[in-house]
Amino acid sequence: MSGPYCPRCGQPRHGGDHAACRSQQAALEPPRYCAECARRMVVQVTPGGWSARCSRHGESTSAGRSPAR
């Protein structure tokens, strides 16, 4: 899901420096903020992957995702 907000830091995608958000190490981390509304998400990390749930926009999971570049 891509939206107007950065899923790593919650700031608007356009503007600011998101180099740390796009780093290889950050690509392995689950998103912490909803990309649609910038709300903090409930994140659960398991040995098999992760799930992140926004109270307004639902759940996303690591299933079927490749690391961001």
Explain what the structure shows.
The model has no long low-confidence stretch (mean pLDDT 85). The protein has 1 helix and 3 strands. It is 6% helix and 22% strand.
Poorly predicted regions: none
Q: Give the CA-based shape.
A: flat
Q: What separation lies between the terminal Cα atoms?
A: 15 Å
Mean of residue pLDDT values: 85
What gyration radius follows from the Cα positions, in whole Å? Answer: 11 Å
Major pleated sheet:
3 strands, antiparallel
Number of strands: 3
Strand content: 15-25%
* Separate helix tally: 1
Strand order of the largest sheet: 1-2-3
How do the helices and strands follow one another from N- to C-terminus?
A: HEEE
Concise account of the structure shown:
By secondary structure, the protein is mostly beta strands. Helices cover 6% and strands 22% of the residues.
Question: What layout of secondary structure does this protein have?
Answer:
Layout: H1 24-27, E1 42-46, E2 49-54, E3 58-61
Antiparallel strand pairs: 1-2, 2-3
Task: Name its key features.
69 residues; mainly beta; 22% strand; three-stranded antiparallel β-sheet; 3 strands; single chain; 6% helix
